[in-house]
Amino acid sequence: MADVEQPQIYLITPPEFELSRFPERLAAVLDAHEVACVRLALATRDEDKISRAADALREVTYARDVALVIDNHILLVERLGLDGVHLTDGARSVRKTRKALGADAIVGAFCGASSHDGMTAGEAGSDYVAFGPLRDTGLDDGTVAEKDLFQWWSEMIEVPVVAEGALTAEIVKEISPFTDFFGVGEEIWNEDDAVKALADLKAQFS
User: Fold this and answer.
1) pLDDT tens digit string along 114-146?
2) Which of the following CATH numbers is that of domain 8-203: 3.30.390.50, 3.20.20.70, 3.10.450.50, 2.170.150.20?
3) Lowest mean pLDDT: which of 1-5, 16-20, 99-103, 199-203?
């Protein structure tokens, strides 16, 4: 993942979607915007559903030379021909996952708002660390990844950082100088025009 001055876009799928419609929506966004990576983040644990979704999305991303990773399902990465995995349990399984998938796979770790977890994940071989959500959503334990965390990380740590979860235009503007990637998901998929919604968020980059 390249180091550039402005943040890059890391797209996250909705937790559920219509297989007959979503790949087309994704293709439209990828054709309109430069995207570094797409993450398949389905809520289901049904292997058949996940596999069919991965196959459909891989056709879209592969044709556009965009990496495709999956939430947590390490065993499916090689089986489905994906580029890597996004681990949602912080640093706990990074080292084991890196060993299982090898040096070329993308391994990322979501670390909530814990700089300690993030540093541990980076030391264990994570390609990037994700922090979030960026504002209180009324879910989980209410922990929020604050601007100060991203500012500190950008100054002190080499491992690329992703800001994801409950993004708004204001937050994107505030955080953009301090993050390498924005993990964008339902912020655009919940809108009728995902292409325009992403353009509106990117317009806030400072």
Assistant:
1) 999 999 999 999 999 999 999 988 777 778 999
2) 3.20.20.70
3) 1-5
